[in-house]
Recover the amino acids of this structure.
């Protein structure tokens, strides 16, 4: 089961980096958990505030008889966090492609990294950062939130980690992370997204200037969009925010 082997650190540079450096000697489904991270990072290497009180962990997968697309493992955990928040009566949404939002504020970020041998991944590492009991830095108050802001009481991080990995393993990993049924995870993920077909959005490409567009279709690995000049394009990576209707 995920987390049967859990390695805990009071302080660590980065849980993802630890697994990237040690994946060969660790069994699949190993969890690395740190009380705080000194150099946590998100997509495109962006800094992720990881002070004491949050839940910061990474999971190692070495898929043999399961799909090896790293995005399936991101969706596995984004759906799990989405489900966990429901248990607290908190309605969340998944921000395409990998964050979890409450309202328009981030409560969880998820990052996957793969170790390749040629074109095939030998290991997939999923890093999960959840704001739980930690105070959000003042400069991030408009963009981020934490669980304690909704529950007004501290959560037991060890129990929460165990619950998350239990759900991830039994509700999704064993049941759907198979070649013939992994599409179910994708469908559930699409239904939980904060964007829908027909939404007007602002798009910030990884390399390029922001522009406005409309979502034409949501596909497993990309979005089909209609830009302001009515050109149909496929969008694979970047930031997307829904435009507020006036």
């Amino acid at each position: 089961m995920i987390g049967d082997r859990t390695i805990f650190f009071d302080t660590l540079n980065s849980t993802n980096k630890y697994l990237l450096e040690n994946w060969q000697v660790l069994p699949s489904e190993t969890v690395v958990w740190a009380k705080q991270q000194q150099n946590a990072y998100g997509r495109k290497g962006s800094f992720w505030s990881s002070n004491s009180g949050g839940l910061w962990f990474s999971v190692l997968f070495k898929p043999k008889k399961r799909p090896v697309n790293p995005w399936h493992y991101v969706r596995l955990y984004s759906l799990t966090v989405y489900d966990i928040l429901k248990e607290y009566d908190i309605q969340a949404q998944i921000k395409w492609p990998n964050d979890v939002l409450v309202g328009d504020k981030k409560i969880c970020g998820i990052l996957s990294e793969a170790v390749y041998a040629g074109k095939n991944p030998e290991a997939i590492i999923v890093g999960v950062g959840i704001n739980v009991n930690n105070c959000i830095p003042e400069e991030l108050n408009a963009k981020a939130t934490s669980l304690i802001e909704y529950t007004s009481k501290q959560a037991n991080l060890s129990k929460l980690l165990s619950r998350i990995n239990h759900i991830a393993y039994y509700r999704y990993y064993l049941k759907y992370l198979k070649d013939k049924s992994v599409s179910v995870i994708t469908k559930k993920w699409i239904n939980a997204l904060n964007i829908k077909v027909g939404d007007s959005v602002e798009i910030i490409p990884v390399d390029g200037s922001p522009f406005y567009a409309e979502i034409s279709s949501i596909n497993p690995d990309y979005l089909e969009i209609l830009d302001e000049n009515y050109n149909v394009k496929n969008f694979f990576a970047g930031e997307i925010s829904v435009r507020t209707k006036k």
The chain has two domains: 6-192, 200-242. The domain at 200-242 is CATH 2.30.30 (SH3 type barrels.). DSSP finds five helices and twelve strands in the chain. Helices lie at 15-22, 70-87, 148-151, 157-176, 182-192.
